[in-house]
Amino acid sequence: MDLRQLRYFLAIVEEGSFTRAAQRVNVAQPALSLHVRNMEEALGTPLLLRAPQGVTATDAGELLARRARSLLMDLERTEEEVRSLGREPMGTVRLGLPGTISGILSVPLIARCRDRYPKIKIVIAEAMSGFVREWLLDGGVDLAVLYAEPRETGVRSEPLLDEELVMLAPPGETGAQQTALGRLADIPLILPSGAHGLRAMIEDKLRSEGISVAPEIEVDSYGNIKRLVEQGYGCSVLPFHAVAREAADGRLVVRHFDPPGLWRRTYLAHATARPLTRAASVVSDILTTVAGELISEGTWAGARPIMADAAERQS
User: Fold this and answer.
1) CA-based diameter of the chain, in Å?
2) Among 242, 143, 127, 96, which Cα is nearest to 195's?
3) 278 and 151 within one domain
4) Rounded to an integer, what distance in angstroms lies between the CA atom of residue 95 and that of residue 145?
5) How many CA atoms lie within 13 A of 247 on its CB side?
6) 88 or 36: whose pLDDT is higher?
7) What's one GO MF term for it (predicted)?
């Protein structure tokens, strides 16, 4: 196999169609089919399942596509790094962000990078933290902001900031501005599903306090959780920055948890198997700086910087 065949094969898998892949790579469809047959013969296994609705990868094809994607991205990074050697940093940097963080960080980060390093292009992909972690491990992104410290071999991470989690209640609820964690066991709860990182973090914390909860409604969308709480179906626990606007508008009531509060740590990570390009290193530094500025100016509501001693205890 050569790089050209890998590019063709990856296009077919990503497009799910020989016709669309042929248009994408500007190669005749029969030639693409011949390349795939040659690859299957060389590897001794089917790579694609063909059907009237399109094509899908077999298990072997999925493996090859993941490795091909990583290899081609590494080649692209290498070419960009060589071209920019001794010059202003340039090239594409792929950054994976959880959706709520992207809504705060993406625009000021891109603006700062464009202002200082116009030859760097940032590509931002948004998803739940678990998917962002998979992208990092598979080589789909150069940098990733994660809600749980990655423990996998070959991943390096640094604490970025802490986010406060708060209880949100329907509008009109009265009472103290602070509440005990134990109250969550006595009220109807609306939480993300068990596969969601926030749910796992909340349950781990409650379990350590001897508290057990059973949500009445489970939904992974923060927007839907907020609407359900606003309509009086129950209470929830979300990052403060995700509900600050609704609280200010009177659409939700926010209760902070009794000291020390409920916090979750975010991490900036990259894979050590793929050394950061100069452009990626620059973006990493700017991201950390911009995040700190957003905290200090109050834009990132409910976030606090990592103190040196706290970071050492966490590590």
Assistant:
1) 71
2) 127
3) yes
4) 8
5) 18
6) 36
7) DNA binding
Tokens of 290: 């911009």
Residue 251: pLDDT band (50, 70, 90) is very high
CA pair distance 204, 162, nearest whole angstrom: 17
How far apart CA 162 and CA 83 sit, in angstroms, is: 38
CATH of the domain at 230: 3.40.190.290
Residues 174 and 199 in one domain: yes
CA distance 240 to 303: 8
Overall domain count for the chain: 3
What is the per-residue pLDDT across 227-250, written as a single tens digit (0 to 9) for each?
Answer: 999 999 999 999 999 999 999 999
Angle at 150 between CA 145 and CA 155, to 5 degrees: 90
**Digit-coded pLDDT (tens) for 207-223:** 999 999 999 999 998 99
CB of 170 within 8 A of CB of 254? no
What is the pTM (predicted TM-score) of this model?
0.72
- Residues 62-71: what's their mean pLDDT? 86
CATH number, position 139: 3.40.190.10
Q: Are 96 and 80 in contact (CB under 8 A)?
A: no
Residue where the block lists tokens 């000021």: 108
Residues composing the chain = 315
Residues 117 and 183 in one domain: no
**CA–CA–CA angle 150, 153, 158 (5° rounding):** 40
Query: Residue 124's closest CA among 242, 287, 257?
Result: 287
